[in-house]
User: Fold this.
Amino acid sequence: MEATIEAAPGTITPEKARAWEGMGINRVSLGVQSFVEAEIRRSGRKHSADVVAREMEMLREAGITNCNLDLIAGLACQTRASWRESLDWIERLAPAHVSIYMLEVDEDSRLGKEMLLGGVRYGAADTPSEDEVAEFYETAVERLEAIGIRRYEISNFAVPGLESRHNLKYWKLAPYVGFGADAHSFDGRVRRQNPESVADYLAADGGSSEPSDENERFFVGLRLMEGIRPAADDWRRFEQPIRRFVDAGLLETEDGVLRLTSRGVLLSNEVFQEFLAA
Assistant:
């Protein structure tokens, strides 16, 4: 069984860690984002690398050894040297699981609007280029592989056998149930979303539902490095885009399995868009 809790670095105490373990929590995910002070401050976080190290030790002393650390490639002020520093900390702390997210800027956010306008506020002028972010990501793939933390999904890496079980359910389109305001559920055919506000949720006031997209497993399942095994009808229906992406070196096929190549991972949104539009 896997029971995961997400926590912000700087909020864990020995008492809290022991209480979690006593409740059956056996996996903790820390949204570290960076181990470099300048990047941490620019992202509005208050922790430090030493704080994360102490909290990892607290969790292990409490008996919780399966921990995930998040990093973001593309933060303001990030450089090759600072990215290597964050990866050095990952190697030092040896978590069972690491998530590497390439920064995606929401055009409705303050940073996104500033970047679109060519401004300098909110770190917009100090954000690495797309090519640099891709380089940081590829560096992380190599470094993590070298220490036995293998990529099994575009953004997720784990010691073999310690992959995130609840996330695998989403990528493999297994049924799941969500509780609470704005929580989502999926029964294998229909997706449901609870009301966004707590008041509406407590009043059991509706929510929404919609049938799942028949092409969903292409743009969800292809996120996994193991790929997917399309049905015969799918091979025929998507023959042209599959052939085009294989020729471009973004997809590869083997014994009926379709998967992204290493280059395809970096351009995955371009691949997924083809199946979303079908």
Notes: Residues 219-276 form one domain. The longest strand covers residues 66-73. The chain has a mean pLDDT of 91. The CA atoms of residues 246 and 252 lie 6 Å apart.
